[in-house]
Amino acid sequence: MKVLFVCTGNTCRSPLAEAIARKISIERGLQEVEVASAGTSAWDGAPASDGALLVGMERNMDLSSHRAQSLDRDLVRDSDLILAMGPHHLERIEALGGSGKGFLLSDFASYGASVRPISDPIGAELDVYRATTDELEEEIRRAMDRIMAERSSGTT
Description:
Elements: E1 2-7, H1 13-28, E2 34-39, H2 50-58, H3 73-78, E3 81-84, H4 87-95, E4 102-104, H5 105-109, H6 126-153
Parallel strand pairs: 1-2, 1-3, 3-4
Helix pairs in contact: 1-6, 2-6
């Protein structure tokens, strides 16, 4: 299963989400889950932001090799599940043919009980990056719970 995380620049939230999901997949032995990230307005090849790099290091996640990539039709087509940070990202996913496989991360993780966006920490203090990373980890753990439940019941 290919899971794609989408934010705006692909330098903060979605690379952190990708790293967190990869870490959780390894913890849970989910070898069939592949994760990636992209941005709706990414500058292709840009590294992860300093804040994302630092918080990643604090949590034993290496984002040093991350390079931003723009969301495009091929990425949407090749992904099984696309988790967006905000409603405008979801609109772009749907415009690129992702209807039915794109969700807000919080919406997917809570089975529709929450539709709040994940706030963008770009340019903020390190504590804001830490708070965003905490929020991402909580939502991604719940999303992975849902993926595992649906896979075991045969609905994905």
